[in-house]
């Protein structure tokens, strides 16, 4: 229900008490600026208008180091949106910008305006463009393109010139200042710029979602909303404005729509006006917290409305019919906001907060001032267990971005990483509080792997590059501008920034670090209330320099080395560690090596490194100095070797455990060593120590990071001892469930490398049947009865992982027949009739396990595509898969996870030669109007087929993908296709001169189509930059060989990756963390691409 249905058509929502009058009497840079029109001149002391608690000594002063750039200084902006048409996909916009000229000799003003927002001269509508009521001459300047600045289709030439052009000017609506206003400009007096535009058929920044009924009317649930098509902002796509993050202003938005629609916008709702015939209604919002245009958004649609019972300031909106899902999904939101307010010692920065759930949005979370827009797929029923953690993380991220990103905004795109990293960091602390330290450390380790892998492939990530740098960085993209920065680079930059903020927190201490954040927020809130002094609004803008200046001022610590290593320079540290124990000296002789080469993404680390030595008499920490490529240190041991079988050993965590010493060297007191145990550095590391020490580390160490590190090495040790300790880990309920799941995959790796030493049923299968099989007949599953307690949830997620681990067991290249029969039986006899929760994800896990069971046909002696020629095992696989896919079509599972898993089985059957290889079935499920999750899964398989196939069909599939990318109406699908192609290119630049020319996708037609799409300004910026990632992966920095380029690829290029021979990871259906899926770190583990449910 919405307000209308609850309270009648004339019902007025309560006017918010904290909304102050919308007036300005400003002094900017010493110049008086009074708002014109009907705005009265009131000094705004308002609520807390002066500096509170004496925290701001120099109140009314601009923030040091923050300077507003541009031709004008925007003070306030009014936006009127009307004539919203869903069938025509259009609406009218009238805006008035109150601004102050920053130059007395200004001749023209340039505003940002997208190509789908048409000016009066372009459509012939009755709009005008005026300054202080005087009509102006205006024109739209030509927008630079990649192809327009290059004679050859090469990134090296085109991108540099394109960046120079876009850096010089990226505002293309030029308004000439009329002669009668020259004196006003010379006196630097305030002006009002009025612009009328019509937005028609927008291709980016705005999305219309609707379905037409058979009679031509619009079905219920139609909505339109804003989203970000570039990394920083897309407001210019529908609104003439100064679209810069440092141009803060006060806002008033009036949205007129039909009475059955609800309008939601940035700011606070102050009421709505019903028109005479009651067919139309105008919703009035005003944002009195100074906000940049890039954080202004809106959504209009047939929404159901839900207000949190215990927090009336929070309102949630979703298309009609989804109210029950909204209530369950947003239930934890009040606790999330309370946690952030307590953590930051600062109240929420806005009087109200709105959450809108929409369809066809490319990002899971899009945050605007006092408003967050989420994908409708975030909503879930109370019967769905697996979506809970993911949903809470997304809600927390949306709330944290209100503090850092919307309220505190970056001064430039160069500082975008900072607010994004701060919001991610405080979100991760919420995850630690709710889901535990082990989950928090697991996600930090995953971020670390992703950053190291990206830098190893693509090049170093520099968090804050210098804008004045004349020399081009050794990258394929230009990260100093949002229009030329790769989204993959930006996403990993945010991850690296998250790690850097965590490192800074560890270095400063938790309390001093949050004193810094509190200082930034509290000063910003005080200055935001001084609406009569725009000079003070600069305290709401942050740069990397001002942040670290605040760190020094608040904590008294200067950290130039930290900034030089991790902020202003790129790369990650890479350590190779070995040691020997000197029995005579009772010392560990440690050697740490670094290997830094151009292009491998590593930096030469110089500084302290923590070494944690677990000895028989306790855990001892040492600090060694790394000062070169090879560093050596002698560490004194505090224990003596003992010839005992068992001993109680105190651990680093404070626990005492009884350790079986029978396997260790009797002369050495060292049980294991760890380096940088708390991840204080961005690094990857390989430690050489005896196998028994890794076994001790896994068995007795309580830190999940140490356990994961031990698992990575033990999977490379195929011996009975490793097998036994891994089996013990899986069986032990005291281990973190993710470690137990990883241990199952590691055990499979170990068993596959060992000679056949087992007879009968595999131990893992016996374990599974004992835990999850029916008591009367363990061969069959017991009826599902999931219980949401800590212990039972761990068993639930282990229940999903173990079949997938079992399915990877091989003997002579063939899956175990007993395992396949076990999986088919568990699918066939699965019973969820008495379970209060859904088993969709469990069924999907069994289907994924069935997909992994499929072995290549040449090991089975098959290859005949006649159905009757299929073995009975494959017949059962095909039968169960077809049944699951058909049932998921008739009765859809949550997010179609069962259908997605069934597609992966079909893909594996084709890939291994059991059925004809044909992409037609996947194109059927990739078609428009289907569930977006099915579409994404099918597209993932199609792209993966391109990278594995050498058939001529690949060229047609790739061209069809590029056509869909250019024409599909869903921006989420367009972005998904571009991301898939960028991460899984059909071939690489390394192959371009040998196997590349024989690759059917390596044609001049493909190269021309890619270059054309990269230059098409109607495509979203993020999609174009992802295509540049693809172009770079295929052809390097030079002109493609098929277009007359050099025969040998030279210069910077994407590094080779180890090919993944596992099944496609089309869906990470448990706890997809904020960074989404990412490839494994090449030096950290070799089996993680197979861990579907943990990705």
TrEMBL record:
- GO BP term (any one): transcription initiation at RNA polymerase II promoter
The Transcription initiation factor TFIID subunit 2 Ig-like domain covers 571-690
- Which GO terms of the molecular function aspect are on file? chromatin binding; RNA polymerase II general transcription initiation factor activity; transcription cis-regulatory region binding
Instruction: Note whether Transcription regulation occurs among the keywords.
Output: yes
Cellular component, GO annotation = transcription factor TFIID complex
- At the top level, the lineage of the source is Eukaryota
Q: Which InterPro entries match?
A: Aminopeptidase_N-like_N_sf, ARM-type_fold, Ig-like_TAF2, Peptidase_M4/M1_CTD_sf, TAF2, TPR_TAF2_C
Classification via Gene3D superfamilies: Neutral Protease Domain 2 (1.10.390.10), tricorn interacting facor f3 domain (2.60.40.1730)
Q: What is this protein called?
A: Transcription initiation factor TFIID subunit 2
Organism placement in taxonomy: Eukaryota, Metazoa, Ecdysozoa, Nematoda, Chromadorea
Gene giving rise to this polypeptide: Acey_s0295.g1673
